[in-house]
Each structure stands twice: as C-alpha cells, then as structure tokens.
Design a protein that fits this description.
The radius of gyration is 17 Å and the shape is globular. It has an 8-stranded mixed beta sheet, with helices on both faces. Strands 5-7 form a two-stranded antiparallel ribbon. 24% of the residues lie in helices and 21% in strands. It contains 8 helices and 10 strands.
C-alpha cells in the first residue's frame, strides 16, 4: 500500500491490478492513497480531501460503510464513483453492452455524448477527451441531480449532486481501469482533469507510465 497520510485523494481499492497500477504510477502516486475496501482503512477516510471509487469494485462491501461515506460528503468533500453503486446510492443502474469498437467505426462519435462542459470535471476537455464507451446507464438518479453526460439516445451516463453537503458524482464509465491498460490514449487528459477536480492540484503533463518496481516484478519488454 502507498504511504498514507499526506496525499489528497483516497482511492478505494478492491485488489484489482488496474486500480493499483494507476495509483502507483509515477504521474499519479503523489495524489492517491489506496484504502482497501475489505480492511479497516475506511476509518482513515476523513483525512482526505476526496474519495475516488474506481470501476470493478465491491459495492456490497462498500455499502457496509454507507454512513461513513455520507458523513464524508456532509463535511463538504467529494466522491467520484464509477460502476454500479446502486447498493449504496439513491439511483438505479441498467447494464448495457460495452462498445469498444466505436473508434474504428466512427472515432468522432463515441457512445457517450452530450457532455455538460460547464461542470468543472469536464472544463477544458474536448468532446473526444471526455467521451468513450460505457458499461450501463442510470435509469433513475437523485431528485435535483445534475446530468453531466448522456448517450445519443438520451440515457444518463453520469450525474452529480450536492444534496449531501459535498459533491457526489457517479458514472457508468471506467477511466481508471482503461487508463491502466493505456489503450485509450486520450485518457491522460480526462484522468488529469479528474484529479484536478477532486483535489485542486493538476498532475504533470504527459502520458502515464506504469512503474514495474511498484508492481513487484519486471515489466516484459516489447518484442
């Protein structure tokens, strides 16, 4: 686990390689501490400015800490959650097949569209930088919540609400998981902006690299 206590953002960690790879990457390691969802780390949450809950997490386990999460929001802090969090938020999710082929068919028309670029999370991003595939839609969101992204068909992809004191943002995308594999090349822009929105500090420009030493084994060289 990364050294605790002095970084601005907690990332809720489910043991998934992709989550660890981004948190340990040289570009982002000064911003993220990992809190293990199945351990006692949630008691440390209050020391952080914001919480990031990446895709591929255990939301049944997260729901056990619902009171802590909403107390964290009540302190005026931020939570960004990716994936089906309906076990502990007031919303309904429906699965949708992921379209990973859109960039071949029409790279200028990703499955996610209609972004609210006035929200600070998307401020300064281009439509291409803000959009890629998704894994579901929200068919119900909290009353008064702000819709941030929709599909062309009008289905809700991401939304936010300040009804709990701070800001809760939920989305059906997977930026951390995708960024670890570095297959979507423009995700540096989005993840950099996500970090900035969460803590007010911006990572250095340039592409993310994976640190082999942090993963505990040599990284295979290209052939």
């Amino acid at each position: 686990m990364l050294d605790p206590g002095h970084k601005p953002i907690a990332m809720l960690f489910n043991g998934v390689w992709a989550q660890y790879a981004v948190a340990a990457a040289p570009k982002y390691r000064e911003f993220f501490d990992l809190l293990y969802v199945h351990g006692d780390d949630m008691e440390q949450l209050y020391r952080y400015q914001a919480l990031l809950i990446p895709f591929q997490n255990d939301h049944l386990a997260i729901a056990e800490h619902r009171e802590v999460l909403y107390d964290f929001l009540a302190c005026g802090k931020k939570i960004a959650v990716y994936g089906d969090a309906t076990h502990w938020i007031d919303a309904l999710w429906e699965d949708r097949p992921g379209n990973n082929y859109w960039w071949v068919e029409n790279p200028l028309r990703p499955p996610v569209a209609n972004t609210d670029f006035t929200h600070p999370l998307f401020c300064g991003l281009t439509p291409r930088q803000a959009c890629w595939h998704h894994h579901g839609v929200y068919t119900r969101i909290p009353e008064g919540a702000r819709v941030l992204q929709r599909t062309d068909a009008g289905e809700v992809i991401s939304w936010s609400t300040t009804a709990y004191g701070g800001e809760l943002m939920a989305a059906t995308q997977d930026p951390i998981v995708e960024h670890s594999g570095q297959q979507i090349q423009h995700l540096d822009h989005f993840v950099d902006q996500l970090v900035y929105w969460l803590c007010g500090r911006r990572p250095k420009e340039g592409h993310m690299t994976v640190d082999p030493a942090a993963l505990g084994h040599p990284w295979p060289s290209a052939t």
